[in-house]
Amino acid sequence: MSAIEIRNVKKRYKDLQALKGVSFTVEQGEFFGLLGPNGAGKTTLISILAGLARADEGSIAVHGHNVVDDFRLARRALGVVPQELVFDPFFTVRETLRLQSGYFGLRNNDDWIDEVMANLDLTEKADANMRALSGGMKRRVLVAQALVHRPPVIVLDEPTAGVDVELRQTLWKFISRLNREGHTIVLTTHYLEEAESLCDRIAMLRRGEVVALERTSTLLQRFAGTQLFIRFAQGVLPAELRSLEVDPGAVNGRQHLLRLSSYDDVERILAQCRAAGCTFEEIEVRKADLEDVFLQVMNGPEMVEGLA
Ligand SMILES: Nc1ncnc2c1ncn2[C@@H]1O[C@H](COP(=O)(O)OP(=O)(O)OP(=O)(O)O)[C@@H](O)[C@H]1O
Ligand SMILES: [Mg+2]
């Protein structure tokens, strides 16, 4: 049984097709990244998953429970940290977490609540009113709220937006621990270096469609690998090297980014440039990161077709 099974989900808002038939599966125990630019449809998909919005077509199941027909069981298997800060200003942190436990029928949950608060550095604020908390503190409470019923599947919609470095590290330590203990994690973030270091597998959404779905390491190898950056003082890139350009369409004047299949290519490329009369102003060998992959996938329509 998969942790999350998303099948052909479509969602339209008036004349905007926010999701155009999204399908993918997240296996139990995975740390899964859902990436995409603003407006790609990530939050829409998560809202449908959490039962807060209805799909026009398609279905989602959490641990085998359909999120519409089998809402209560699906919801129980799921903890969602929403992107928007929503909370009741009149309760304290501890009351908020007790109330949330109550929704799931958990009465004596204080030990776990204390543990969650301790792991998110919230203990000092346990008796503070929600309205008296800073933005970053409120975000910690949202994370805690999603975890009170120890859901096997945890979905975090940009949990680190507007959050300081220290909390990010605290949060990732705790979430990674939960993942090691068997919880499935789905994360959306615009901090691609976070996704690169945390996620086993990544789906990229663009305008409501999945345009990449791969293991993180495969994505990095397939689309990126190692690159040679050169800026010429004089001369132009020899024609036979143009096919190596990472982004051939870019208007880049004297500078070029070339794909390397191995470090051994560097010598040959530089020699070819020199033979063509080029001189160099700058040379750099770079290891491509997830940001390079992201830009290539988002800018390259040809990648869409290649997806199974
Ligand atoms: N309730 C709504 N009514 C109308 N349009 C909506 C609604 N919710 C989302 N949209 C639109 O659907 C598209 C997808 O939005 P969504 O919030 O899912 O994007 P996202 O990938 O989460 O973006 P971000 O990275 O900015 O959070 C956007 O164009 C958005 O304007
Ligand atoms: Mg969003």
UniProtKB/TrEMBL annotation:
InterPro entries: AAA+_ATPase, ABC_transporter-like_ATP-bd, ABC_transporter-like_CS, ABC_transporter_ATP-binding, P-loop_NTPase. The keyword Disulfide bond does not apply. Pfam families: ABC_tran. Residues 4-232 form the ABC transporter domain. The keyword ATP-binding applies. This is ABC-2 type transport system ATP-binding protein. It comes from Paraburkholderia diazotrophica. Keywords: ATP-binding, Cell inner membrane, Cell membrane, Membrane, Nucleotide-binding, Transport. Transmembrane segments: none annotated. GO terms for molecular function: ATP binding; ATP hydrolysis activity.
